[in-house]
Amino acid sequence: MIRNALENEKSAIYRIWKEMFSFDDQGYTDYYFAELYRAKDTLVYVKDDKIVSTLQKRGHVMMLHDKPIACYMLVGVATLPGYQKQGYMKELMNAVLDEASHQCLVTCLQAYNPELYTPFGFEMLYSRKKYQFHRDDFPKYKTMGISQNMNYKDMVSLYRKFCSSFNGYMVRDERYYKRLEKQLEMEHGYVYTYY
């Protein structure tokens, strides 16, 4: 049975994320469930009185050809190992995409295996690279102009400048950067700026 998650099911969905995304967690799941999780944005598939599959739909604003449009970002798409390849996720995806077709023009998906979602009409738009550096990788410089305090207005301005040559991108405001700072704190990371 497909339905929206109940408020008291947050810990069950959290455990699914911890199990299914443990290879790439580094604190993000704790951040997400402390700051962003909302039961009303969560669809679940219940089988044998247990949540076996889940996904989240997050509302975003995207600039597309210089016009702001509402869109969904699907995250946390997961099915427990003992219940995979039985069509539960397919039913969840069809339900959320039907809803999305009545709510917004664009639906995006964060995926570790994008090829799994091409049958639903998704296309690969970009891939993210992750680089890890150790402080010894950087030559010693004077610290003038380097700050660990993020200026949110400057970050928004820089992002807008960066995106000015694109015709489609997610809108980022000061709230986005405040959340990013909190996320990085929970992941034991930092943002350094250089002026």
Number of helices: 5
Overall geometry comes to: globular
Terminal CA distance = 54 Å
Can you tell me the residue ranges where pLDDT is under 50 for at least 5 consecutive residues? none
Summing up helix and strand content along with how strands pair, one would put the structural category as alpha+beta
Counting DSSP E segments of at least 2 residues, the number of strands comes to 8
The radius of gyration over CA amounts to 19 Å
On the 0-100 scale, what is the average pLDDT? 90
Q: What fraction of the residues are assigned to beta strands by DSSP?
A: 15-25%
What is the element string, with H for helices and E for strands? Answer: EHHEEEHEEHEHE
Largest sheet: 6 strands, mixed
Percent in helix: 25-40%
Assembly level = single chain
Write the layout of secondary structure elements.
Layout: E1 2-4, H1 10-20, H2 28-35, E2 42-47, E3 50-64, E4 67-79, H3 88-103, E5 106-109, E6 146-147, H4 152-163, E7 168-170, H5 174-186, E8 193-194
Parallel strand pairs: 4-5
Antiparallel strand pairs: 1-2, 2-3, 3-4, 3-7, 6-8
